[in-house]
Amino acid sequence: MKIHEYQAREILQDFDVPIPAGKVAETPSQAREVAEQLGGTVWAVKAQVHAGGRGKGGGVKLARNLEQVEELAKTMIGMRLVTKQTGSDGALVSKVLIQQGVNIVSEYYVGFLIDRANQSPVLLASSEGGMEIEKVAADFPEKIVKEYIDSSVGLTKEQAKDVVVKLNMDEKVREKAEKVLLGLWKAFKEKDCSLLEINPLIVTKEGEVFPLDAKMTFDDNALYRHPELEVLIDPSQEDETELKAHEAGLPYIQLDGNIACLVNGAGLAMATMDTIKLFGGEPANFLDIGGGASVEKVTAAFEIMLSKPEVKVILVNIFGGIMKCDTIAEGIVEACKVVSLTVPLVVRMKGTHEDLGKQILKESGLPIITAETLGEAALKAVSLAKEQ
Predict the structure, then answer these.
(1) Active-site residue identified among 6, 108, 109, 252
(2) Residue ranges of the domains in the chain?
(3) Annotation marks residue 71 as catalytic
């Protein structure tokens, strides 16, 4: 789950992380009012979208008077901002963050994430703030500081101090920087973040240490612990199909292919997509129906898959364990009654109540194409997709 920068700022303030003065606005006139309230002579007008690279895409601009603030807000609000992370369609800008200008002396990169290879959280930092961390890692690997964190202990004061020293920060601000790192870690851990990125973390002429930008994403599987985060979801920034799937309780990721997949189990879903690719096809989605799906959930899954006009074939691949094959079969039959099935349907079932599931499909009278193996099912789906 992603949130906007202005929302991330509010969360960080709850963890005593200092934030430059700023406020979100939804109209050009409101943006001007915010700038006037903040005071000063320079303001940053920042488009609020769930994507990085906003500056290069024209979504972050400096204004040197109130008229410019209003004009920039007018230009941004309502536009579709295109960045490297949005794709060619861009992301709709419905709000802008007006941030008071600050006197920047130096910039740094700071990021907390999960290193899955080492199975631990890691703090990444660099003196090359403001640059894309991937470019820094490629061009200046020696400038990347890595500090692995024992999750049972957390980021220690000694570790924070060590990172600040390695970044060669001015001694006068090191204590403040250490406190910021410790506050960021606390937010990362307590909010179940998958990523907390500050780029840049700045030191001002006045000797303050601020996150000038903040990106936070959260582990979807931990949202049940954080109802305060779920209310921050911005539907305008989400893929409509993925949003419907989320509301139905279905793990779903939209892809660019034309063979829709309904599978139980994330590993099997990945294997199914790989097999489709192996035979020259392109999966249209990742969809894990899970181990406890109901008939209603299967129906919802079919509705979601068929809502995409690009879909030419549906491939159902079920290994019956906790999820019984007859339950999926009943769901498929019911779904076909509810939705208008206009594309070929290939089904492969193995496992618990397999024979009963196959019997239900056979007696349904539906034009379902069955397969015994995953390879056979994928090959049939790919061939059918090419024929459409």
Answers:
(1) 109
(2) 1-20+103-238, 21-101, 239-387
(3) no
